Amino acid sequence: MTNRLELSQELGLDILAQAREKGASQGDVVMAESEEFFVTVRLGEVEKISQAQEKRLGLRLFFGSSSATASTSDISKESVARLVEVTCAMARSTAKDPSSGLPAPEELAKTIPDLELFDSSGRTLSVEEKTALALEAEGAALHADPRIVNSEGAEFSHHESRIFYANSHGFAGDYPGSTFNLSVTPVAALNGSMQRDTWYSTVRRFSRMESPTVVGQTAARRALRRLGGRKIQTREVPVVFDPLAAASLLRHLSSALSGYSLYKGASFLVDRLGSQVASELATVVDDGTIPGALGSKPFDGEGIPTRRKSVLEKGVLKSYLLDTYSGKKLGYPSTGNAARSVGGPPGVSPTNFHLLPGTSTPEEIIASVDEGFYVTELIGFGVNLVTGDYSRGAAGLWIHGGELAYPVEEVTIAGNLKEILMNIDRVGNDLEMRDRTAAPTLKISRMTVAGS
Amino acid sequence: MGQEIIPAESFFDRRFGITSRELDRVLSQALEKKADYADLYFEFRVHEAISLEEEMVKNASQSIANGVGVRVLAEAKTGYAFTDDITIENLELAARTAQHIAHHRDHSLPVPVGQGRIHDLYPLKEPVTDLPLDRKIELLYEMDRFTRALDSKVKNVLISLASEHKIVLMASSQGWVVGDIQPLTRLNITCIAEERGNRQMGSFGGGGRVEFDFFTAGKDYERYAREAVRQALVNLEAEDAPAGMMDVVLGPGWPGILLHEAIGHGLEADFNRKKVSAFTGRIGERVASELCTVVDDGTIPFRRGSLNVDDEGTPTQRTVLIEKGILKGYLQDRLNSALMGMPLTGNGRRESYAHIPMPRMTNTFMLAGDASPEEIIRSVKKGLYAVAFGGGQVDITSGKFVFSASEAYLIEDGKVTRPVKGATLVGNGPDVLTRVSKVGTDSKLDEGIGTCGKDGQSVPVGVGLPTIKIDGITVGGTASS
Q: Which homologous superfamily is A9-35+50-106 in?
């Protein structure tokens, strides 16, 4: 194989110069290099260790208003020249789309702030130290209770990357990132039936990771509280979503607010900007500038700076999530939410997307429910974003007389997202930015719980 | 790409100049410090995606990826390293990294050698990725015009054609070298129909390890378009689905996703070796009504879930999972078959060189029974008839699964009556097939659209089912029944 090129801003600009010589009117280059490591342990023994390095390079070219993208993991001079040829040939065959093109030069990031996305301490941790973290987390889960009888294992992983972006306006930038993840999945058993649950900590700075003991004990507690699950009679009741389950509602909201879903008419929130789409208790923010947060980045997949914006203010829809293309289709500027895989055209994704905390403690919310369902896990794909129809498999705990009474499983909860959002009638004070999308405990005043 | 078709065995030598002598050297390095087994997985993959919306083919993209994964097994331990820079130096580095796992051990484990002939299930004259782009683009425009002409309520049409051409080469410390060329293509259509402010979606698609004329020769693309439009129009008329326990009839084909979720994942060997599956230790026991025989078959020509060899060099086969209701076997990869002392079944699969193989399904389906579909529906007083599904998910350990209907109807007094939307079925894997009271004569496989996710790895799969009746399963809708 031929000599591999180093990724750099200059390489990006050089490729765009080659493309211009071939007649491309505009273009951009996305490059990523990454190193990853993971170790999994199970029942006190190492199970898998994996280590790797990867580089990828993607090119998007415009010939007037038609465009195409191509990518390769083979980053040599010859291969890059071939990539330019292939992309040019494809871009001449696609449709002329008047909304296509790069952002305007003045929209691009002028400075690249340090958002504390990178921590080099992964390099100084030995394989043995990384393994010990996973062993410790699993051990904490296994020793938490005699009913924890088995384990699907624990994993520690570490990922480092550098993203480069350059476009034919002369913009070029790059930024590094790192993540550390520790997770454990214990299995609890009672009377021959088994339950598992997972807990995890994912962070950009190693020092902020939850201790292995906390991760292990939390996972054990979650698996144990599912033991002895019952089915319940079909009925309509208040439903309380724990923070992880509530975050899934926020993910549906962010998908429905993606400019691509909206201009295609594939969202239940089409044409609702400025209207009340959720309860007054719901204020939702998307903020890509929070230092050290998982979804932060200095600029988006088109070189536009990320920012903080209100998405819902007291339930009123204030902003869609847009990149340049979907923004043009809807008549608005980009909101800095372009997401980019190396191999394709931009899409839209939220950065750090969260519902702001309210004033009630989770205990107060549960105490406000006489008969109802506290949801801790949702499975399946029963969400139709076009109509908002919602029906998912659920597990959790039954609330009786304001207290968590017994576990419930093999039921579904159903409703329509339009009503679910309007029916948020309590918001917890327990927001934690555990993932890119996060929410506090939420209570929905009524949903159908289907069981026997 | 204009790749000439050459055997996989010589492809990597020609492209990267890695000779078989060098492969042997890397493998023996990987076995140092007394590992049980080592293998290499080379992959070269071209992927192309073309999509149409708003009557324009706006996007075409191509990606080329190549790389190699080195795996070392030492008892239950796996060491893995991969690189996308295929040089002999990087291979040696990866081998040393992967064999880190073999430290401190005192036992050894015999790893089984795959038996049987390697199939030739998808010989293609011309890969779809090699065809001129304009021909593929023209198909999308033709399909779009056809779809829009079907009904004025159709407001938007989204079509995508995704094709890949994958060349793999596997070599192991057992001395064998196996190559395969794996084409895969999928054509999908989604349409959005609107009437009086009500918007609904319909989707259809198909494909497999096939050539381009699979879609054009019999005008299958027109059938896909008609199905997507029909489904969207049906959903415009649909009422809210009922909630509660009721009898459910599943239509043939894609509803076989029930088997995949409720049964298939729970029979993958890794979960059973670790004793975390709801099916653990139940071989020989009754897990379904005696009407049910379920198989996993990776050897059906041109199917999306089929493979000549699995991703660790074992020829695929037909494996009986459930025979007349009795649990017969698990789906194995090399590691788990060695640890459990059970034969290989050709189900060791991985998403790419960047992933460690694990037991996965291929094409999983139920064999036909003797009831006519009409008689099955007639036997239901009040229930649900579900013919198309979005997707499903299972919790292996508790056995609880869920899957969501994208086209379903009420059955009232033995007749299919009104369409309903938003029906989700939820049940318990080891229990659901014991409730199957009728199995139809009409077993069929899906159209070739399935992708299965497990532990972050996606692989193409097939499912199949005859019309079946399940006595009493929870339907999660919103309407009070």
A: PmbA/TldD superfamily (3.30.2290.10)
